[in-house]
Protein backbone atom coordinates (compact mmCIF):
# COMPACT_ATOMS: atom_id res chain seq x y z
CA UNK A 1 0.00 0.00 0.00
CA UNK A 2 2.80 2.32 1.05
CA UNK A 3 4.77 1.48 -2.09
CA UNK A 4 1.83 2.28 -4.32
CA UNK A 5 1.49 5.67 -2.70
CA UNK A 6 5.20 6.37 -3.30
CA UNK A 7 4.90 5.35 -6.94
CA UNK A 8 1.96 7.71 -7.45
CA UNK A 9 3.91 10.63 -5.96
CA UNK A 10 6.91 9.87 -8.18
CA UNK A 11 4.73 9.95 -11.29
CA UNK A 12 3.22 13.29 -10.35
CA UNK A 13 6.56 14.91 -9.54
CA UNK A 14 8.06 17.21 -12.19
CA UNK A 15 10.68 15.45 -14.33
CA UNK A 16 14.23 15.84 -13.04
CA UNK A 17 16.44 17.83 -15.36
CA UNK A 18 19.84 16.93 -14.05
CA UNK A 19 23.12 15.58 -15.41
CA UNK A 20 24.09 12.58 -13.32
CA UNK A 21 27.72 12.26 -12.11
CA UNK A 22 29.85 10.76 -14.89
CA UNK A 23 27.56 11.90 -17.73
CA UNK A 24 29.62 12.42 -20.89
CA UNK A 25 29.49 15.89 -22.42
CA UNK A 26 27.81 14.59 -25.60
CA UNK A 27 25.04 13.07 -23.47
CA UNK A 28 24.58 16.06 -21.16
CA UNK A 29 21.34 18.06 -21.10
CA UNK A 30 19.51 15.39 -23.13
CA UNK A 31 16.09 15.83 -21.66
CA UNK A 32 12.86 16.98 -23.15
CA UNK A 33 12.66 20.76 -23.09
CA UNK A 34 9.88 21.86 -20.74
CA UNK A 35 7.30 24.45 -21.64
CA UNK A 36 7.81 27.91 -20.20
CA UNK A 37 4.75 27.43 -17.99
CA UNK A 38 6.31 24.31 -16.41
CA UNK A 39 9.31 26.18 -15.03
CA UNK A 40 9.72 27.66 -11.56
CA UNK A 41 8.20 31.16 -12.02
CA UNK A 42 10.98 32.82 -10.01
CA UNK A 43 13.70 31.65 -12.40
CA UNK A 44 11.64 30.77 -15.47
CA UNK A 45 13.20 33.38 -17.77
CA UNK A 46 16.73 32.36 -16.80
CA UNK A 47 16.07 28.65 -17.21
CA UNK A 48 14.17 29.07 -20.45
CA UNK A 49 16.88 31.29 -21.95
CA UNK A 50 19.56 28.78 -21.00
CA UNK A 51 17.58 26.02 -22.71
CA UNK A 52 17.27 28.09 -25.88
CA UNK A 53 20.96 29.01 -25.85
CA UNK A 54 21.94 25.38 -25.37
CA UNK A 55 19.68 24.16 -28.18
CA UNK A 56 20.23 26.85 -30.80
CA UNK A 57 22.75 29.55 -29.85
CA UNK A 58 22.78 30.84 -33.42
CA UNK A 59 19.00 31.26 -33.72
CA UNK A 60 19.09 34.96 -32.87
CA UNK A 61 15.46 35.68 -33.78
CA UNK A 62 14.21 32.97 -31.46
CA UNK A 63 16.49 34.14 -28.65
CA UNK A 64 15.18 37.68 -28.95
CA UNK A 65 11.52 36.61 -28.69
CA UNK A 66 10.26 37.60 -25.26
CA UNK A 67 8.29 34.69 -23.72
CA UNK A 68 4.56 35.27 -23.56
CA UNK A 69 3.38 37.50 -20.71
CA UNK A 70 6.96 38.26 -19.62
CA UNK A 71 8.56 41.66 -19.28
CA UNK A 72 10.97 42.56 -22.10
CA UNK A 73 13.23 44.19 -19.50
CA UNK A 74 13.47 40.97 -17.50
CA UNK A 75 14.28 39.11 -20.72
CA UNK A 76 16.94 41.70 -21.53
CA UNK A 77 18.34 41.41 -17.99
CA UNK A 78 18.58 37.62 -18.23
CA UNK A 79 20.34 37.90 -21.59
CA UNK A 80 23.01 40.08 -20.01
CA UNK A 81 23.48 37.69 -17.11
CA UNK A 82 23.88 34.85 -19.61
CA UNK A 83 26.29 36.79 -21.85
CA UNK A 84 28.48 37.61 -18.82
CA UNK A 85 28.59 33.94 -17.87
CA UNK A 86 29.67 32.92 -21.36
CA UNK A 87 32.10 35.82 -21.70
CA UNK A 88 34.22 34.13 -19.02
CA UNK A 89 34.89 31.29 -21.47
CA UNK A 90 36.22 33.82 -23.98
CA UNK A 91 38.58 35.22 -21.35
CA UNK A 92 39.93 31.74 -20.68
CA UNK A 93 40.68 31.34 -24.41
CA UNK A 94 42.24 34.81 -24.65
CA UNK A 95 44.65 34.09 -21.80
CA UNK A 96 46.68 32.07 -24.31
CA UNK A 97 47.79 35.08 -26.33
CA UNK A 98 46.33 38.31 -24.90
CA UNK A 99 49.28 38.81 -22.57
CA UNK A 100 51.54 41.71 -21.64
CA UNK A 101 54.11 41.25 -24.38
CA UNK A 102 51.49 40.99 -27.13
CA UNK A 103 48.75 43.32 -25.96
CA UNK A 104 49.75 46.36 -23.96
CA UNK A 105 46.95 48.71 -24.97
CA UNK A 106 43.24 48.06 -25.29
CA UNK A 107 43.02 48.42 -29.06
CA UNK A 108 39.93 47.88 -31.17
CA UNK A 109 41.00 48.43 -34.76
CA UNK A 110 42.82 51.80 -34.53
CA UNK A 111 41.05 53.09 -31.41
CA UNK A 112 42.34 52.86 -27.85
CA UNK A 113 39.58 52.29 -25.28
CA UNK A 114 39.99 53.50 -21.72
CA UNK A 115 38.85 51.35 -18.82
CA UNK A 116 35.84 52.93 -17.14
CA UNK A 117 35.81 50.48 -14.25
CA UNK A 118 37.79 52.96 -12.11
CA UNK A 119 36.83 56.30 -10.57
CA UNK A 120 39.07 57.89 -13.24
CA UNK A 121 39.22 56.01 -16.57
CA UNK A 122 42.58 54.30 -17.03
CA UNK A 123 44.62 52.73 -19.82
CA UNK A 124 44.35 49.15 -18.58
CA UNK A 125 45.81 46.40 -20.76
CA UNK A 126 43.12 44.39 -22.61
CA UNK A 127 43.02 41.43 -20.26
CA UNK A 128 42.74 43.75 -17.24
CA UNK A 129 40.10 45.75 -19.08
CA UNK A 130 38.11 42.55 -19.63
CA UNK A 131 38.43 41.33 -16.04
CA UNK A 132 37.74 44.74 -14.47
CA UNK A 133 34.66 45.37 -16.58
CA UNK A 134 33.25 41.89 -16.37
CA UNK A 135 33.56 42.08 -12.57
CA UNK A 136 31.91 45.49 -12.54
CA UNK A 137 29.06 44.41 -14.80
CA UNK A 138 28.47 41.19 -12.87
CA UNK A 139 28.36 43.12 -9.58
CA UNK A 140 25.84 45.56 -11.04
CA UNK A 141 23.59 42.80 -12.38
CA UNK A 142 23.66 41.11 -8.98
CA UNK A 143 23.05 44.33 -7.08
CA UNK A 144 20.06 44.12 -4.74
CA UNK A 145 19.69 47.87 -4.99
CA UNK A 146 19.25 48.06 -8.76
CA UNK A 147 18.00 44.59 -9.65
CA UNK A 148 16.35 43.17 -6.52
CA UNK A 149 13.97 40.88 -8.42
CA UNK A 150 14.28 38.22 -11.15
CA UNK A 151 10.69 38.81 -12.29
CA UNK A 152 10.57 42.60 -12.40
CA UNK A 153 13.03 45.17 -13.77
CA UNK A 154 12.26 48.88 -13.69
CA UNK A 155 12.29 50.54 -17.09
CA UNK A 156 14.40 53.39 -15.73
CA UNK A 157 17.29 50.97 -15.19
CA UNK A 158 17.52 50.61 -18.94
CA UNK A 159 20.29 53.24 -18.68
CA UNK A 160 22.52 50.68 -16.95
CA UNK A 161 22.10 48.22 -19.80
CA UNK A 162 23.57 50.80 -22.20
CA UNK A 163 26.82 50.98 -20.22
CA UNK A 164 26.88 47.21 -19.74
CA UNK A 165 26.37 46.57 -23.46
CA UNK A 166 29.21 48.89 -24.46
CA UNK A 167 31.69 47.37 -21.99
CA UNK A 168 30.93 43.85 -23.20
CA UNK A 169 31.04 45.08 -26.80
CA UNK A 170 34.59 46.41 -26.27
CA UNK A 171 35.82 43.08 -24.90
CA UNK A 172 34.45 41.31 -27.97
CA UNK A 173 35.84 44.08 -30.19
CA UNK A 174 39.38 43.61 -28.91
CA UNK A 175 39.11 39.84 -29.41
CA UNK A 176 37.93 40.37 -33.00
CA UNK A 177 40.50 43.03 -33.78
CA UNK A 178 43.61 41.40 -32.27
CA UNK A 179 42.82 37.71 -31.76
CA UNK A 180 40.71 36.81 -34.77
CA UNK A 181 41.23 33.04 -34.67
CA UNK A 182 40.11 32.83 -31.06
CA UNK A 183 37.20 35.17 -31.66
CA UNK A 184 35.93 33.24 -34.71
CA UNK A 185 36.12 29.91 -32.91
CA UNK A 186 34.22 31.35 -29.96
CA UNK A 187 31.67 33.24 -32.02
CA UNK A 188 31.13 30.24 -34.31
CA UNK A 189 30.08 28.16 -31.30
CA UNK A 190 28.13 30.73 -29.29
CA UNK A 191 27.14 33.74 -31.45
CA UNK A 192 27.73 35.95 -28.43
CA UNK A 193 28.54 39.02 -30.51
CA UNK A 194 25.47 38.47 -32.69
CA UNK A 195 23.34 38.12 -29.55
CA UNK A 196 24.76 41.26 -27.96
CA UNK A 197 24.15 43.33 -31.07
CA UNK A 198 20.63 41.94 -31.50
CA UNK A 199 19.94 43.08 -27.93
CA UNK A 200 21.48 46.45 -28.68
CA UNK A 201 19.24 46.86 -31.75
CA UNK A 202 16.12 45.65 -29.96
CA UNK A 203 16.58 47.89 -26.90
CA UNK A 204 18.50 50.75 -28.52
CA UNK A 205 21.61 50.35 -26.39
CA UNK A 206 24.82 51.20 -28.28
CA UNK A 207 24.56 54.32 -30.47
CA UNK A 208 25.83 53.87 -34.05
CA UNK A 209 28.49 56.56 -33.58
CA UNK A 210 30.08 54.49 -30.80
CA UNK A 211 30.50 51.34 -32.91
CA UNK A 212 34.18 50.51 -33.37
CA UNK A 213 34.14 47.38 -35.48
CA UNK A 214 31.90 45.78 -38.14
CA UNK A 215 28.40 44.55 -37.41
CA UNK A 216 27.70 40.80 -37.00
CA UNK A 217 26.75 40.15 -40.65
CA UNK A 218 30.11 41.52 -41.88
CA UNK A 219 31.96 39.70 -39.10
CA UNK A 220 30.15 36.47 -40.07
CA UNK A 221 31.30 36.91 -43.68
CA UNK A 222 34.92 37.46 -42.50
CA UNK A 223 34.57 34.38 -40.30
CA UNK A 224 33.46 32.27 -43.29
CA UNK A 225 36.53 33.39 -45.30
CA UNK A 226 38.81 32.79 -42.31
CA UNK A 227 37.43 29.28 -41.75
CA UNK A 228 37.68 28.45 -45.46
CA UNK A 229 41.33 29.59 -45.57
CA UNK A 230 42.07 27.61 -42.43
CA UNK A 231 40.52 24.51 -43.98
CA UNK A 232 42.53 24.80 -47.19
CA UNK A 233 45.70 25.31 -45.12
CA UNK A 234 45.00 22.07 -43.25
CA UNK A 235 44.47 20.22 -46.56
CA UNK A 236 47.82 21.31 -48.02
ZN1 LIG B 1 44.72 41.16 -26.68
ZN1 LIG C 1 40.75 48.72 -15.51
Task: Write up this protein.
There is one protein chain. This protein has helices at residues 2-12, 44-55, 60-64, 72-94, 126-141, 158-178, 180-190, 192-203, 216-235; strands at 107-108, 111-112. Helix 4 packs antiparallel against helix 8 (192-203). The longest helix has 23 residues, at 72-94. 56% of the residues lie in helices and 2% in strands. A two-stranded antiparallel ribbon has the order 1-2. With 236 residues, the chain is mainly α. It has 9 helices and 2 strands, in the order H-H-H-H-E-E-H-H-H-H-H. The radius of gyration is 21 Å and the shape is globular. It has a single domain (39-204), classed as Butyryl-CoA Dehydrogenase, subunit A, domain 3 (Up-down Bundle), CATH 1.20.140.
Give the helix/strand layout:
Elements: H1 2-12, H2 44-55, H3 60-64, H4 72-94, E1 107-108, E2 111-112, H5 126-141, H6 158-178, H7 180-190, H8 192-203, H9 216-235
Antiparallel strand pairs: 1-2
Helix pairs in contact: 2-4, 4-5, 4-6, 4-7, 4-8, 5-6, 6-7, 6-8
Q: Which descriptors would you attach to this protein?
A:
236 residues; mainly alpha; Butyryl-CoA Dehydrogenase, subunit A, domain 3; globular; disordered N terminus; binds zinc ion; zinc; metal-binding; MOB_kinase_act_fam; Mob1/phocein; MOB_kinase_act_sf
Ligands? zinc ion
Q: Which band does the percent of strand residues land in?
A: under 5%
CATH class (first level) name: Mainly Alpha
Largest sheet: 2 strands, antiparallel
As a percent range, the share of helical residues equals 55-70%
Q: What's the number of structural domains?
A: 1
Query: And the CATH topology?
Result: Butyryl-CoA Dehydrogenase, subunit A, domain 3
What's the number of extended β-strand segments?
2
What is the strand arrangement across the widest sheet?
1-2
Uncertain stretches of 5 or more adjacent residues: 1-10
Average pLDDT reading: 88
SSE order: HHHHEEHHHHH
CATH superfamily, called what? Answer: MOB kinase activator
Q: State the secondary-structure class.
A: mainly alpha
Question: Any idea what the radius of gyration is?
Answer: 21 Å
- Helix count, per DSSP? 9
Give me the CATH architecture, please.
Up-down Bundle
Euclidean distance between termini CA atoms: 71 Å
Q: What would the principal axes of the Cα set say about the shape?
A: globular
Pfam family, one: Mob1_phocein
Protein name: Mob1/phocein
Keywords: Metal-binding, Zinc
Amino acid sequence: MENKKCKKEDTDAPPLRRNRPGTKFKDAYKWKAPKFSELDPMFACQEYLQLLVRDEPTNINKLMEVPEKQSPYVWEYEHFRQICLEMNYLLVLLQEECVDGNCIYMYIEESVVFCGAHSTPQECCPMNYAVHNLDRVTALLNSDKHFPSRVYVKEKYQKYFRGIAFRLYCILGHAWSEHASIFYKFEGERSLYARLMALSDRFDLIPKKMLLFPRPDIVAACMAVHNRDLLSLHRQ
